[in-house]
Amino acid sequence: MENKVYDKLDIVEMRKPHACQTNRWQIIRMGMDIRIKCEHCGHIVTMTRRDFEKK
User: Fold this and answer.
1) Alpha-carbon distance 2 to 25, whole Å?
2) Disulfide check for 52: which of 31, 34, 42, 45 has CB 3.0–4.6 Å away?
3) Burial of 15 per CB tally in 10 Å (0-12, 13-18, 19+)
4) On the CB side of 38, how many CA atoms lie within 13 Å of its CA?
5) Contact 48, 33 (CB under 8 A)
6) 28: buried, middle or exposed (CB in 10 Å: 19+, 13-18, 0-12)?
7) Phi/psi zone of residue 10: left (φ > 0), alpha (ψ -120 to 50 degrees), beta?
């Protein structure tokens, strides 16, 4: 299984779309937790790195 490397300000696509019907997110914080921001509506979500890599 390949581990992907992500950097701050990268754009990622999640498997399931957000309520605003887009699945493109910008990474705005990296660390033990990852904070992502919806490209369409600006909603911000914080999740653990483990949860992020699953999605």
Assistant:
1) 21
2) 34
3) exposed
4) 14
5) yes
6) middle
7) beta
Other beta carbons within 10 angstroms of residue 34's beta carbon come to: 22
**Concatenated DSSP letters for 7-46?**
-TT-EEE-SSPPTTS--EEEEEE-SSEEEEEETTT--EEE
Question: In angstroms, rounded to a whole number, what is the distance separating the alpha carbons of residues 41 and 1?
Answer: 33
What pLDDT digit, counting tens, does each position of 27-47 carry? Answer: 999 988 999 999 999 999 999
Predicted TM-score of the model (pTM): 0.80
